[in-house]
Amino acid sequence: MTSAQTKLTQSIQAGLFDAAEPAPVLLQVVDLTFDEKVKAAVEAIKQQVREGRRLVVAWSGGKDSSVTLNLAFTALRDLIAKGHSVPALHVIHSNTGLENPVIEIYNKGQIRAIKAYAKTAGIETRVWVASPNLSNDYLVGLLSGRTIMSVGNNTKCQQMMKKSALDRIKRQVRAWIAEKDGVKAKDANLVSLIGTRFEESAQRAARMPAHCSSSRPMIKGCRFPWVNSSNAGRIWAKDACG
Fold this sequence. Notes:
- InterPro entries: PAPS_reduct_dom (IPR002500), Rossmann-like_a/b/a_fold (IPR014729), Sulfate_adenylyltrnsfr_sub2 (IPR050128).
- By secondary structure, this protein is an alpha/beta fold.
- It has one domain (34-229): 3-Layer(aba) Sandwich (Rossmann fold).
- It is 52% helix and 9% strand.
- The longest helix is centred in the last third of the chain and has 26 residues, at 156-181.
């Protein structure tokens, strides 16, 4: 064996045990226009309905969730116009009982408006309001001595007043859908639509998946690109224009 062949063999053998460094892949993210983002989100929702999923919108009364609800209504309205049969739209809302009275009155008015619009559009819509029951009310727990004040990063108040109530309502929605479809609750075919924006806060942006880009929808809890990558000005514009 020549010296050149020996060096080649040694190089190959060494290479078998070297950690291969992946070559960097550069992806160009195309920022869609206002209209393109709206169209992409609506089409993504329509596709979910075509595949047999039931829509559940998490609506807080704020601009982001209101835009998400608007997109859901738009998608269902478009499907109806094309002769498709659409399932009931479920809207989940949280009322902890601690909200500013003005905001609570506003949200109740918006719920009435949602129901009125749904009736006019011919879209069956059910609004589910989640509120803590007396046995799991944070303030009642404090006054009765069953719990202590949550401080710092402790989220007991949020868990008791909001999350627990929402989880209970979600189970009720799933059970309702399952009964209508004649299946077990665990087999209910539904998808939650959630409006979240990167610019809302640094913490929120850090928690959002890296692949939740402005170029395409991400369907898992349906965080749509038009919402997550849009600035507040565009959200307000869409909310106002409908």
